[in-house]
Write a structure and sequence with these properties.
This protein is mainly α. The radius of gyration is 23 Å and the shape is globular.
């Protein structure tokens, strides 16, 4: 009587070699971008420690105090204009990130992704650690911290175009919305871990709130160098199908096959990428969607601390609920858009519902702990859902659009254009929040609601075309496609 295979071996053999490699690449790129976001989050947690009300803090006997309210603050953030100075730090990073993103995709197409990502993560780790070392080196220069933020912002641009290009190389369109919705939870997971790690050290030694995340992202850079596989063909796996079989009749699959066989891999121009149908609309929509998302990323802990009167660590922990909601919202957006074939419509509906939810959160969100938790989860899902869908599945759809005839190298540039435009909004949101917040948090929320409505307006043409397609009963094609 033959012996049966062990359960673990049966599990391994149940999946093909291609499936194991695809799962491995998905996990690896998930870890990479989790580390990128993990290293961005500490600044929003540490703000509450750099400037706080010191009147209730126990004062050491050897400290000469001239002001009972500000003696424990970290200069130069001990002044009345501390919100403006925090805005300088935020925008030093975000403006550099927005500008660098437009060039990052161009480099990403022309350099090996493994080297590009490894270098970016190692350098991001270095600059994140240097920010934290300012605590131990007793540096009180705004210029030092702003300069580190600029360099870190430039290095962080290496991540997104490269990981999306890599995942796009390995996965076809069939379940792209769902797969990338799950995969894109790395953004929220990174934010949550970054908040928890920074919160663990913020009250005792805030320098470690940066140094530990810096070491984490540097470590993932080493992991990338040793294990990342850029394309399925590099390890003998079959490449994915990027277009629906329904397009065989017009020759696009044949053209794609011919181009792949002939080694068609010219890097697309910036103007060529802009001419792909849908790129401009989704880019402008993401500008306003990311404005809302990044305002929450950088200012939510401070808002919770100011309005609900939580300590820095408690406010940071509470803010992670927004990202938990974002995980669910991103997955739901992917599933719904896969099923309906309406990427633009899915985004538009979520953005429209988000606007009144933001209004309610500002007015009733702090009445009780249960209300705060519920509203943070709902707002996180509605705000981050469209943002996640556009930066992942939509970018990959457009980067492998049938008009490109199989030129997969365009994916990095298209991703960089969409996310680069969005990053302009990411820079403007925290800047406007810093300028508006002194006049009251209500005005900040009115700005966020207006941004959500504008994001919807930029998608109106695409929503109309998707609705037309459903009305005339065009056979549904999964993913966004404009004819």
């Amino acid at each position: 009587m033959g012996t049966s295979l062990a359960p673990g071996i049966r599990l391994i053999t149940a999946f093909s070699r291609d499936s194991w490699y695809r799962g491995f690449i998905l996990l690896l790129t998930f870890l990479f971008y989790t580390a990128y976001h993990l290293s961005r989050k500490p600044i929003s947690i540490v703000k509450n420690e750099l400037h706080r009300n010191c009147s209730g803090v126990i004062r050491p006997t050897d400290v000469n105090v001239t002001n009972n309210v500000t003696w424990c603050n970290w200069a130069p953030f001990d002044q009345d204009n501390y919100n403006t100075l925090f805005g300088v730090l935020d925008n030093s990073f975000l403006v550099a990130y927005a500008i660098g993103m437009f060039f990052s995709g161009i480099f990403g197409e022309r350099l090996p992704l493994r080297y590009y990502l490894s270098f970016g993560m190692l350098m991001s780790g270095l600059f994140t650690c240097l920010f934290g070392l300012g605590f131990y080196w007793n540096i009180h220069s705004l210029g030092y911290y702003a300069f580190i933020q600029v360099l870190n912002g430039l290095m962080q641009t290496t991540g997104w175009p490269a990981v999306v290009a890599c995942v796009g190389n390995w996965f076809g369109k069939g379940k792209r919305g769902f797969i990338m919705g799950v995969w894109n939870s790395h953004t929220s997971v990174g934010n949550i871990l970054g908040s928890l790690i920074a919160g663990a050290f913020v009250s005792s030694a805030w320098g470690l709130s940066f140094i530990v995340p810096g070491l984490v992202i540097a470590s993932t850079g080493v992991l990338c160098f040793f294990f990342l596989v850029e394309k399925p063909e590099d390890v003998g796996c079959s490449p994915p199908q990027h277009h629906s079989p329904s397009h065989v009749a017009n020759g696009s699959i044949v053209a794609e096959a011919a181009d792949d066989a002939g080694g068609h891999s010219e890097a697309i121009s910036f103007c060529g990428a802009l001419s792909i149908p849908g790129v401009v609309e989704f880019s402008l929509c993401l500008l306003f969607a990311k404005l809302v998302s990044y305002t929450f990323l950088y200012w939510l802990p401070l808002y919770i601390s100011n309005v609900a009167h939580f300590e820095a660590k408690e406010a940071g922990d509470m803010s992670t609920l927004f990202d938990v909601g974002g995980i669910v919202g991103g997955i739901m957006a992917g599933v719904v858009s896969d099923y309906t074939g309406g990427r633009a419509t899915t985004c538009c509906v979520m953005l429209l519902v988000a606007a009144p939810m933001l209004f309610l959160y500002n007015h009733i969100g702090q009445r009780s702990l249960g209300t705060t938790i519920g509203m943070l989860l709902v707002c996180g899902g509605l705000v981050n859902g469209p943002y996640a869908l556009i930066t992942t599945a939509v970018s990959a759809d457009l980067g492998t659009h049938e008009s490109l005839r199989g030129n997969s190298r365009a994916l990095s540039t298209v991703t960089a254009i969409i996310d680069g435009t969005g990053s302009v909004g990411a820079a403007l949101g925290p800047l406007f929040a810093g300028l508006i917040s002194p006049s009251g948090w209500n005005n900040v929320f009115y700005m966020l609601i207006s941004a959500d409505v504008l994001a919807c307006l930029f998608l109106s043409r695409l929503v109309y075309k998707e609705a037309q397609g459903w009305c005339v009963r065009i056979p549904r094609v999964r993913g966004y496609k404009e004819t």
